Amino acid sequence: MVQIQTNYQSKPVEINVSAEKLIQFLLDVSSCAKCYPFVDVVEKVSDNTFRWTMQERKVGSIQMKATHVTKYTRNANTITWENMPGGNMSSVGKFIISSVNANKSTLTVDSIVETDIEIPKLLVGFAKTMGQREMAQSWDAYVLSIKKTVESGKVTKVAPVEDVVVKDQKFEKVRLQENLRTENYNTMVSDYYDIVTETYQSGWGNHFHFAPFKTSTESLETAVTRLEHEVADSARITKDSFVLDVGCGVGGPTLEICKYTGCRIRGLNINKKQVGIATERARQMGLSDRAGFDHGDAMKMPYADNTFDVVTFFESTCHMPDKQVFLKECFRVLKPGGRLSGSEWLQCEKPSEKDIIQFIEPICAHHSVPHMGSLNSYRSMMEKSGFYVHIAMDLTQSGDILRNWEILDNKTINTFKALPKGSVDPTIEMMISGAIALSEGARFGAFVLGRFLASKDLPRAKL
Q1: Where are the alpha helices (DSSP H) in 166-286?
Q2: 8 close to 14: Cβ distance less than 8 angstroms
Q3: To which H or E segment does residue 380 belong?
Q4: What is the pLDDT at residue 241?
Q5: Rounded mean pLDDT of the chain?
Q6: In the chain, what is the straight-line distance between the N-terminal and C-terminal CA atoms, in Å?
Q7: How far apart are CA 323 and CA 172, in angstroms?
Q8: Judging by beta carbons within 10 Å of its beta carbon (0-12, 13-18, 19+), is residue 448 exposed, middle or buried?
């Protein structure tokens, strides 16, 4: 259970009635409440104290049913309300009424609402943003409804004005969610990995990425290790190389490449918990002298220009809202002639609105991905950043990628089944839904895996 706080402060609204008439209407809480959007029932529980029960509504992806008990007090031309025990929402605030003349007044509102919502931690950022928008729209409508009602003497309910006017509401909802994920990416991604890391490790191991399978019996461990070796080999990583692995997770690929090539390597991660796990794993594997891990944002790397021989990534740039900025950072920290090598989640080229709504958005929503790029968009962004692109390929050309989700689905579902009877684990449920979204997207061709190799300054002939 988390608490979401939202705030509202209106500009003065001019109303064509006297200040006293407006005050009396506002003190008639049962009548005034009829002006509020989405209210279900308002009941008087004692003198000047009322229980508000709101309609059950879905705000973004969050189902909400809110109640609060509020006591009203008049002090001159100000009406305050305070929260009383008895609900899952707290509402405090004040109406400030100013007299303009005998037949005209102004109304200003200041309110704070706190709501307890049972949601996973990673959705807190979304809930705050959506709640703030919801409150502003609802209260704007409430104030306008009060004005029209008190002026006309008849209840006139005003519907909230959405800030997005759309032709295709489902598609625009997707765009809105993308914007929210982009705005909250830093906290969202870190919170996501705080929640899923232990389950990922128990069900997936320490290598949080997918790979093409060469045979129907090949293990996931063999497939992902082979891809890591291919990424390292194509980038010509040797014992003399200084490598940066971006979005390193708990250090699976980072430490494998270090062990495989003998290179010096740094892992960069936005999640502090994973940095700690990776650092401890390096110590246990006897690799601390060559492998280290840093906490930081890959779009603002904490490294000097021309530091690394190679930058690698394994399905981490999908979490970055501005992939162009990330690629420019890669170009900056690479030495002249340095290589960029990795694999990534991609959407198909020019997905239809149906593809985005049915396949891409569920993947993004379940995995804290602001949005995905395509094979060609990555190539274009790399070139725009100054890279020469040597490889930009769909990994379905290298093997069967669908087996990833058959294996992962089974592991995740088995973990879920092993939970005590009667327990509900929203994390596991979220991960199962996420795995299904990836599997369906891949089967319909809307979601693909890509592999890239690019170099700083050097043309193909000199690579």
Answers
A1: 169-183, 185-204, 220-234, 252-261, 272-284
A2: no
A3: helix 375-384
A4: 98
A5: 87
A6: 54
A7: 22
A8: buried
d(CA 436, CA 345): 15
Which domains does the chain show, CATH number per domain?
2-163 (3.30.530.20), 183-462 (3.40.50.150)
What pLDDT, on a 0 to 100 scale, did the predictor assign at position 252?
97
Residue 397 tokens read as: 């050309």
The residue-averaged pLDDT of 222-246 equals 97
Report the predicted TM-score, pTM, of the whole model to 2 decimal places: 0.65
What is the model's pLDDT at position 461? Answer: 44
User: Is the pLDDT score of 40 beyond 80?
Assistant: yes
Nearest to 124 by CA among 293, 287, 6: 6
In sign, the C-alpha dihedral spanning 152, 41, 9, 22 is positive
Given a cut of 80, whether residue 2 has pLDDT beyond it is no
Judged against a pLDDT cut of 70, whether residue 421 lies above it is answered with: no
φ and ψ of 448, to 5 deg: -135, 165
Query: Would you say the C-alpha torsion 323, 327, 333, 339 has a positive or negative sign?
Result: positive
> If you search the block for the tokens 């250090």, which residue do you land on?
251
When computed from its CA atoms, the radius of gyration of the chain, rounded to whole angstroms, is: 28
Mean pLDDT of 269-290: 97
